[in-house]
Amino acid sequence: MKRILSALLGVAMMLACLCVVPASAVDTSVTLRVGLTIDGASTFADPKLENVAGEATGYTIGTMSGTSFSGGTAVSNTQLTIRLVDDAFQVSDTATGTILYTSAAGADHIAIHPNSDLTWFKGYQWHGDFVYRRASNGDITVINYVGLEDYVKGVLPYEIDPDWPAEAQKAQAVCARSFALGTSKHTGEGYDLCNTTNCQVYLGANRATEASDAAVNATRGEYLTYDGEPVIGYFFSSDGGATEDAVNVWGGDYPYLQGKEDPYETHDSSWSVTLTADEIRQKLVSAGYTIGTVANVEVTKRTDTNNVNEVTVTDTDGKTVTIQRDNCRTVFGLNSIRYTITPNAAENAAAALPQSTSLDITPSVHKVTVNGEEVAPQGYNINDNNYYKLRDIAYILSGTDSQFNVTWEAETDRILVTSGEAYQTVGGEMSSSVSTEIENCTPSDATVVIDGRTVSLTGYRINGNNYYKLRDIGEALDFSVDFDMDSRTVLISSAGSAQEEPSQTTNAVSYTFTGSGWGHSVGMSQWGAYGMAQQGFDYEEILKFYFTGIQIAG
Questions:
Q1: Tens-digit pLDDT profile for residues 71-113
Q2: Theoretical Cys-Cys bridge with 342: which of 263, 504, 512, 525, CB 3.0 to 4.6 Å?
Q3: Distance of alpha carbon 271 from alpha carbon 408, whole angstroms
Q4: How many angstroms separate the CA atoms of 248 and 253, rounded?
Q5: Residue 147, CA distances (Å) to 48, 93, 257 in order
């Protein structure tokens, strides 16, 4: 899950967490166990506690049975330091070093109940009790035992901006509560959730505002259900245009986690990453794949919502590695599964690429037909792929089921495409042959917007004009593209969806991944919730848009 205010969203969700919560397990008054340090390895390893000024002072030191605190020694000191000394937990006054309590040797934990409502720990203020547990490596794991509602108040302002619209905050609160109630992947380590992006970012009360607390209070005890059973409220930062089925990301098919086109995100989540062929090989090897010198990287399967579902990497010996589902994002270290891949023949992808380089550019000589009728769009063949002007493709598809209009929005420097609308000619369509003299060629940097959604099309600006890969256009606008080898003819059909191109060897020096969105794309888009709230939708409408067939209980 992408965190708006933290290091984001690339969380690797474990399939084991994709579960329906048994109805009998739901208790909205539950005390959660949240790991603040993991075997002493995180930035929270400092063992000190401090009462918050203006509140009751002192602590009670005891033990924890389940989630029930059992008191023992009461101290009036306001600052404590806890450490392991000679196989026992030792509690001392931070200022003076005076030892206040020593546990029995070999004790597996101690519990500390602050008299103050809020307690300082490692620069953050927290509700609840603290358990110091002996870790397997001899360090200390610190666990915050906190009530569900206080926990959600400590999640909300770290997952989204606490100044966002109230309905977006309420939707996030219900998701966070549903996630907490249904997640138990850390029980083997002695706690329910961690406080990082691996679960949800939880950093106590520092950033909580009146508005964020109000959103939690307004939805108190509410959680998501499907067919009467509680379910987990997965969320992420931005989908870039469409969410995704859980089965296409994590492998589990859940009816309430179905992908859909998202018209509500107005936030610009576009991104671009260029990786050399060797960097791609190294990433594959690190992920456990075996591959030689990378010769080609391409998307070989997309989902119904046009997200990447499969990437095939081919080496110079012809061996292929197929990467699927969320690995299409995580293996390459990308922000989302919504992207295209452009091979670059030079290290500097933005530099001019003259015809003399290894990028093979020639005027396209292939015949082209639309629904069996021969047409003549002008374009280039680049590394065995045909590229054409959007206006020429719009012109030849006008009057078919796949027609679309193309306009230029000068004030924003965007190409606007409207599907289903008859093309309005502006002059110059299909009027002249392309030049065989390649004066300059760079990857296209034009912004293309289809039906209000920014999309990534593989393209090049050649001699001042944009040419886009035909199969990418077909995928984006739902027409199919095939190639008849016998007649050397490009076959365009206005019915059906585009097919992926066969694997080729490009021997490119680097590959540019250009996409939009941030996160795993399953469940609720945080930026989509923001957009819906801005348009006047309430939090229940937001949640029911992103989660198919759910109800809100509690």
A1: 889 999 999 999 899 999 999 999 999 999 999 999 999 999 9
A2: 512
A3: 22
A4: 8
A5: 22, 27, 28
